[in-house]
Amino acid sequence: MTTCYLRWAITSCCLVGICGIGNAQEVTRQREDLKEPLYRVASPEAAELAAPAESNPVQQATVEAPADVSESPSRERPKIDPTLRTANASSAATTAGIPSTALAATDSQPKTIKDPQLMLALADAEKSLHQINQEIKDYTCLMIKREQVEGKIIGPDFIQTKVRHAVVENGKIVKPFSVYLKFLKPTSKRGREVLYLHGVNDCKVCIREAGWKGNLGAHWLHRSSPLVMKENRHEIHEIGIENLTRRLLEQGHAKDGNVAGVDYTATYGTGAELNSRPCRYLEVNFKTRKPVNESKRVLVLFDEELNIPVRYAAYDWSDRILEEYTYMKIQTNVGLTDMDFNAKNPNYNLK
What's the number of domains the chain is made of? Predict the structure, then answer.
């Protein structure tokens, strides 16, 4: 009897130890996922040519994110409407989701653009947008967001993200642009959930807050209401990789087909990395402050394999962060269904 008991005790301890190790490994993995992403770009001297020089290895240097801000720029900007999508990014007749100020610019390259590196980067961005429209129906990812709102830095926020692009058949929207967000970090926001379907529910967002506020249940608020926008620079329908690509093109071509600021330098090349994934990078520095370019500096990383922008960072004229979006662990065309964007999903707490 004693022998049997000892065997049982030893076996139980072993099982507990194994489970404990497994749980510890899972916690460690989750902590690794929620660390700030490591990104690197090539030194400017290594990218003097207009086209990326694949044969020339580049010296890499870590880019440091700037400190918090003390002043807030104007938040006026064109709104993005993701109602329709098209395989031809330059077709104004069927393109929605790109501001009207940028449509003319993407139809024909403005003659004022002289820098060959910027022209090449914008051409590649057009190809990325075409690829997104053609090939990506939906995706999941870990989005890391940091923004300047009313002079204050919000974030970084680590957000589990689901996006389904709009589906249009015979000129009719059969599935709206849809977004589901679940905040993982910081602790004060962990568990916050957000659901949005474009053109549905009177442009309202379903939100359930984290912590004790979550006990009050989910609430439907207009996407532009002060409560929703107090921690955001953009409304939720402007979220995602497709809209990020459109915004890049918008800033590159700027308003009325003129380059923002005109007096600028651009560097476009290979040799960058985001968490060890090879990337191309574009860095634009404006020398003259004008209404059309509230950003002094813009840095964009394009994933070499996926051929899409995965990181966008813009800095103000004090060289402090305006907005920064990083997309990691991207899984495309995973087959998201209507239930993934339904408040009644049993895996969500949006009731």
Answer: 2
pTM over 0.70: yes
For residue 319, the domain's CATH number is: 2.50.20.10
Q: Do the Cβ atoms of 183 and 190 come closer than 8 Å?
A: yes
Q: Which amino acid appears at position 184 of this protein?
A: L
Look up the domain containing 12 and give its range.
1-33
Task: Give residue-wise pLDDT tens across range 133-162.
Answer: 999 999 999 999 999 999 999 999 999 999
Tell me how far apart the alpha carbons of residues 88 and 94 are, in angstroms, rounded to a whole number: 8
- For the cut 90, the answer to whether the pLDDT of residue 10 exceeds it is no
Q: Count other Cβ atoms within 10 Å, centred on residue 11.
A: 10
Claim to verify: residue 117 and residue 14 sit in the same structural domain: no
> Do residues 12 and 129 both lie within one domain?
no
Cβ atoms of residues 351 and 195 within 8 Å: no
Q: Is residue 208 part of a domain?
A: yes
CA–CA–CA angle 321, 324, 325 (5° rounding): 175
Sign of CA dihedral 190, 164, 86, 118: positive
Give pLDDT tens digits for 224-242: 999 999 999 999 999 999 9
In a shared domain, residues 150 and 207: yes
The answer to whether residue 180 is domain-embedded is yes
What is the per-residue pLDDT across 269-308, written as a single tens digit (0 to 9) for each? 999 999 999 999 999 888 888 776 788 899 999 999 999 9
Same-domain check for residues 200 and 319:
yes
Q: Check whether residue 108 and residue 189 sit in a common domain.
A: yes
Tell me: do 61 and 8 sit in the same domain.
no
**Burial of 84 from C-beta contacts in 10 A (0-12 / 13-18 / 19+):** middle
Classify strands 60-62 and 167-169 as parallel, antiparallel or unpaired. unpaired
- What is the pLDDT, as a whole number, of residue 290? 76
Q: Which tokens belong to 261? A: 């600021």
Do the beta carbons of residue 157 and residue 137 sit within 8 Å? no
Q: Are residues 22 and 159 in the same domain?
A: no
Query: What is the DSSP pairing of strand 193-197 with strand 167-169?
Result: unpaired
